[in-house]
Design brief:
Its main location: nucleus. By secondary structure, the chain is mainly alpha-helical. Helix content is about 55%, strand content about 0%.
Length: about 90
């Protein structure tokens, strides 16, 4: 069975890397309107991306509280202690 969207619109979906312009559109839209139903957010913001793509881009890269960089020595020690206690679960 073919998986299709339930939209009556046939909008071409953009694939591949996000552009800086798309990132700014998404950031500004969420700043003004907040997070919500991602499929309608993608359409309302004027992005030719899927709702899932917008959600993943926001949650994994664009959110202001996403930490980047290496873990601290304290975090590494905590991971090792918890792994010693609980193992690979």
């Amino acid at each position: 069975m073919d998986k299709r969207t339930c939209d009556s619109q046939d909008v071409e979906v953009r694939k591949g890397p996000w552009t800086m312009e798309e990132d700014l559109i998404l950031i500004n839209y969420i700043a003004n309107h907040g997070e919500g139903v991602w499929n309608s957010l993608a359409r309302s913001a004027g992005l030719k991306r899927t709702g899932k793509s917008c959600r993943l881009r926001w949650l994994n890269y664009l959110r202001p509280d996403v930490r980047r960089g290496n873990i601290t020595p304290e975090e590494q020690l905590l991971i090792m202690e918890l792994h010693a206690k609980w193992g690979n679960r």
